[in-house]
Amino acid sequence: MSSGWAIETEGLRKVFGNRVAVADLTLRVAEGEVFGFLGPNGAGKTTAVKMLLGLIHPTAGRGWVLGRPLGDRHARREIGFLPEGFAFPDWLTAEEILWFHGRLAGVEPDRLRRRIPELLERVGLAADARRPFRTFSKGMRQRLGLAQAFVHEPRLVFLDEPTSGLDPAGRILVRDFLRAQKGQGVTIFLNSHLLSEVERICDRVAFIKGGVVVETMDLRAGAATTLALQLGYVPAGLEAALRAWGEVLAVTDNRLTLRLVPDRRPADLARWLVGQGLDLEAMIPQPFSLEEVFIRVVGMETG
After folding, report:
1. Helix or strand holding residue 207 (H, E)
2. Fewer CB within 10 Å of terminal CB in the chain, N or C?
3. Which residues of 234-245 are buried (b: 16+ CB within 10 A; e: fewer)?
4. Which of helix, strand or coil describes residue 140?
5. Which residues of the chain register pLDDT less than 70?
6. 173: left (phi over 0), alpha (psi -120 to 50) or beta
């Protein structure tokens, strides 16, 4: 496959009996980016991740991870994974857990002796290295699980709800840790229901609904601008004409909310509106809300 993509899929599909868990997973994740995978419960996120990890085989479609076909053992050596419902032996210490998982991943003992203290320091557990896992709080367990996913210095890491159970200070620590990993070129595939955290750390996100990726969005600064346009009146056909400028999110009386495409500027839009003979009373930038986008794209489904 072509270089530059950590994950690339074409029409991945998974059927269990009469139930379609994933209908069409088509996406690309660039090397070195933090990619959010969002959708309501039951949308197919877990099944999709299991296919990408090679834990289950797709019914149809194709996919590549780190340039190799799904399930390739050489690629799997360079993948880290933190599942949502992970569990460690509660009698082992934090050091022992990381040692065990590091050796399973083939990390040499000398490297692990240096790696484990570094990781525990970065996830805020250096002082708890020799405490048994059963004495850890929910947040401490979550941070140790995160360290486990990175212990073998993978190129690609899948994280399922990595900030679950963390207090605000813990979420900041994890956020900084993930940013540091991204800075080292690690690709992170993130599944989370905490959309505020996704906004802060992800470069791009994909929304999945009914087993289909319905939209992909770039969250990086400058990728999109949302404007509220107050006009003297809204003539027939204006909404259709504005599709050349972006996506009309809402129309209420004489007010339109428009999300500009990345290569369009508000100043150019203002000149165009005036040139159409319209009375532009106000153009107000709107704060971005991933939660609002989520509701617009996938609806109010719950599971």
Report:
1. strand 204-209
2. C
3. beeebeeebeeb
4. helix
5. 1-3, 221-224, 300-303
6. alpha
The phi and psi torsions of 168 (rounded to 5 degrees) equal -55, -40
Q: Would you state the pLDDT for residue 261?
A: 82
**With 0-12 CB in 10 A as exposed, 13-18 as middle and 19+ as buried, what is 87?**
exposed
CA 141 to chain centre: 21
Reading the block at residue 172, the tokens are: 């900041």
Q: Map tokens 């065990």 to a residue.
A: 100
Please report the domains of the chain, with CATH numbers, ordered by start residue.
Answer: 5-218 (3.40.50.300), 225-287 (3.30.70)
Query: In whole angstroms, what is the distance from residue 206 CA to residue 213 CA?
Result: 7
Residue positions counted in the chain: 303
Question: Would you say 45 and 84 are in contact if contact means Cβ atoms under 8 Å apart?
Answer: no
Chain centre to alpha carbon of residue 46: 13
What letter does residue 182 receive in the DSSP assignment? H
Order of strands, edge to edge, in the sheet holding 246-252?
A: 246-252, 255-260, 225-231, 280-285
Residues 12, 27: Cα–Cα separation, whole Å: 10
Q: What gap in Å lies between CA 162 and CA 86, rounded to an integer?
A: 11
Pairing of strands 34-38, 187-191: parallel
Which of 250, 231, 242, 255 minimizes the C-alpha distance to 293?
250
Distance between CA 66 and CA 24 in Å, rounded?
A: 20
Q: Which residues pair with 256 in a beta bridge?
A: 229, 251
Residue 127 has φ and ψ, to the nearest 5°, of: -75, -10
